[in-house]
Amino acid sequence: MSADNRRHRILSDLEETKTSWEEKRAYLEKELVISSVDQKFALRKKIQECEQEIARIAKNIESIKKEHQQKNLDILDSLFQKVHDIPIVDRPIEIVDMGQKSEPMVAAHWQEFMRLWISKLGQKNNQAEYLGLVTADDVILRLLSANRSPKEARALSSFAMQCLATQPDLKEETVHLVIEKAIENLNELDGLNKPHTLIDEAFSSVMQSSFGQILHERLLESYIQNRDANRNKIGAIFSNIAITNSEILNARNATQILTPLLEKLTIFCSVEERVNAAFHLVEAFYRPQVQKNSTRIDFLPNLLLRKVAKVLLTCVQQDTGSNYAVSTTAIWAISWLTSARTYYSHTPYTFADEELEILRQVVINDKHDAFARSWSALILSVCSPEKTVFAQADWIYEWAIVADGSKPQKNLPKISYPNRPKDIEAIKSLIFSHLPSRAKRQTAIALGRLGCFIPEMIDPLLQVFQDAMYSRDDRDEALVYLVFTGNSQVVSALTYGLNGPKDNTDKYDLPERCFLGLIGIGNVDALKQKNNRHMHENKFFTERGDLIHKLKAKDSTGRWAYYFIYVRPTLEQEFTKTLESNQSINIEDYGKVIGSCYGEEPNDELKAFLKDKYGFDV
């Protein structure tokens, strides 16, 4: 038995003994009233003995309590000293294809000490033991109430959420404070498609705990109350941990999944119900594209697709009283429905001009959420059968060929400018607005897709191009639009990137991209560095192993041959569908054969060639 438990047992025994003596005294006092004169003397003496015993036991109890109180004060001093001296360390975060980032966290030994005491103090059966002097609420309030640096505040809010996941016995206001502080300290690394940060993991764990409903309600409430960057961060976390559809959307289950959600988007439902339903639509359209190899939402029946678009756009039009939370989430859902984050034109649904006008009005109306406006710009940039500028050619590959001397710069493909004057004018007004940096980057990308290149796009495009958090395709798209903007600021930035220090963790190879960008601009100094040994083309294929397809087929002579083919990203789905149809195809229409041999399997010579030239293990 521990010392604390022994002490608690001794106190209980003393209290029971004291109660017995008090009951005996009460009995004697009653007897005293009805006793004879001869009996009174003896009874008074017995009552006096009872009072002496009660006083003695009370003194012992008080002594033990004082001793324990002093120990509690020592514990409190120790805990609060820990609260002031917080060791913060950096924890690496590995995000696939996005390089390594880090986040602040409290050191493991500090966490272990504090978590032990918070757990111990947060147990109901310990409240009497610790005599109410210090509770888990006291410690957490002290942790979160002091003025902290942003780094400390982030680390401590993450730790407090981790403690909440263990379900200590806390007052409701303490639970709300922990959640509120965690929401305040969210950043752009949180709420990605799976938990990467400690706060991601903590939010997910709390959602599965007895505090899950409180967290769900508070996140939804905060999302509705906030705007712009804060709302976007809260929405990312909420959709990641609170919205879970049981099935991935497909052609067979689409009507069953989507129809009930669309019914909850009417004005007869509360703001909370409508926002929650819109979030489920975001999740429904998002998951197939993330979990099933970028499957686009091109499989919905026409009538259902039209209904989805109409209901969501009606939400956008009708939303004036919810801090635009409903319309923001509806537009977010449309952006995933149309795959607007990618550069492919959306062709399954043809937006009527009055529907496009709804989106244009969101773009130009500064009462709307900043991200609703930038998402609307992205949707406008892809909702036409005309190809976006980035999709019109494999620009990076074309520049690599020029760099290797296989093609003159003057023979590069020319832009076919989309005929979208209304959309361009609306989005141009947005690029001049005061926006969060991420929203401005989306706006710049939207303008580039439509063939509009103005100086105001350069800074946000450079931010995308230089940020390892973005995917390779996102960074390449930003680079293409920088090249076509092509002023001295772009040349200076690309030259600096070309000559900057080498980063061994840079999987994107930023200096190589800067060089190819300068080639695309036609920069004379960059052209002097060109190499005729196909070095740049080789690098291009080496880093695009995911776009190299293996194919066994008969050539024009009827002989079996094995091919390794680089397929342009914009043609990959068409290439796959053509193969499945068993039609005859010209491989060069879709990309380039980087290696081949006769036979039904790659021979040793081809394997050695691919290993030596591109680093591929076959």
Write up what this structure looks like:
It is elongated and about 130 Å long. It is built from 26 helices and 5 strands. Strands 3-4-5 form a 3-stranded antiparallel beta sheet, covered by helices on one side. β1 and β2 form a beta hairpin. Helix content is 60%, strand content 6%. The two termini are 64 Å apart. The longest helix has 48 residues. With 618 residues, the protein is mostly helical. About 1% of the residues have low confidence. α1 packs antiparallel against α2, α14 packs antiparallel against α15 and α17 runs antiparallel to α18.
Structural class: mainly alpha
Strand count, sense and closure of the main sheet? Answer: 3 strands, antiparallel
The portion of residues assigned to helices is 55-70%
What's the tally of helices? 26
Low-confidence stretches: 124-132
Rg: 34 Å
Quaternary organisation: single chain
Alpha-carbon distance between the two ends:
64 Å
Shape field: elongated
Kindly report the average pLDDT value. 86
Strand order of the largest sheet: 3-4-5
Estimate the strand proportion: 5-15%
Write down how many β-strands occur, each being a DSSP E stretch of 2 or more residues: 5
Which descriptors would you attach to this protein?
618 residues; mainly alpha; three-stranded antiparallel β-sheet; two-stranded antiparallel sheet; elongated
Short description:
This protein has 26 helices and five strands. It is mainly alpha-helical.
